[in-house]
Design brief:
2 domains, 3 helices, four-stranded antiparallel β-sheet, 12 strands, eight-stranded antiparallel β-sheet, alpha+beta, single chain, 21% helix
């Protein structure tokens, strides 16, 4: 009889553990899918803002969460704006996530001239963009070439312009490929900060 009670008690404990693990897994997936997602910086394309190995949180609510398996985006708190650091699915290979700074939005004309960014023939004065030297690399940033960004798409570049594979090479990021806004570095401890 004691063995039967012990077995029943073990089954009850095991079932409670299984329930707790399932609930934790579902909560983690909901948080990761709709709220925030951790991201690790794999390359130096965003130096000195972000360096290799930085771990950060991406805010999916900022621009609205993309409904899985669709191109539909739930309403967000804001629209992407110039200077924001975005995480997005790489348009050429959607299995990869990229992180770059938003330079221009749909309808704007972009030109890289003398190391500066010009939007609609005016130099950008936003500090996060104006304080970087940009190179005329790639088909979309040749000297003297102005590119108009299609509606619903974005032109993005890395802060380390000399070694960033960005919109200058492969073009624009459609809105539905945006994962979210990079908000805060949480690791390593000596680099914890808000991303600007």
């Amino acid at each position: 009889m004691f063995q039967k009670l012990l077995t029943e008690e073990n089954k009850k404990i095991a079932w409670e553990w299984i329930e707790s693990l399932v609930v934790a897994f579902i909560l983690a997936m909901v948080i990761r899918t709709f709220l925030i997602q951790p991201f690790k910086i794999p390359s130096g394309s965003m130096r000195m803002t972000l360096i290799e190995g930085d771990r950060l949180f991406v805010n999916k609510l900022a621009y609205g969460t993309l409904v899985p398996l669709t191109h539909y985006r739930l309403p967000g708190f804001s629209k992407p704006k110039r200077g924001d650091v975005l995480v997005f699915q790489f348009p050429v290979d959607r299995r990869k996530d990229f992180i770059k700074r938003l330079i221009a939005v749909g309808g704007e004309t972009v030109e890289v001239r003398d190391g500066r960014i010009y939007i609609n023939d005016k130099p950008v004065t936003d500090g996060s963009i104006a304080n970087v030297h940009y190179y005329n690399y790639g088909d979309y940033a040749q000297m003297g070439k102005k590119i108009t960004v299609p509606q619903g798409q974005y032109f993005v570049m890395g802060d380390n312009s000399a070694s960033s594979h960005d919109s200058r090479y492969w073009g624009f990021v459609p809105e539905y490929l945006i994962v979210g806004k990079a908000e805060v570095i949480f690791w390593p401890l000596n680099r914890i900060r808000w991303i600007k």
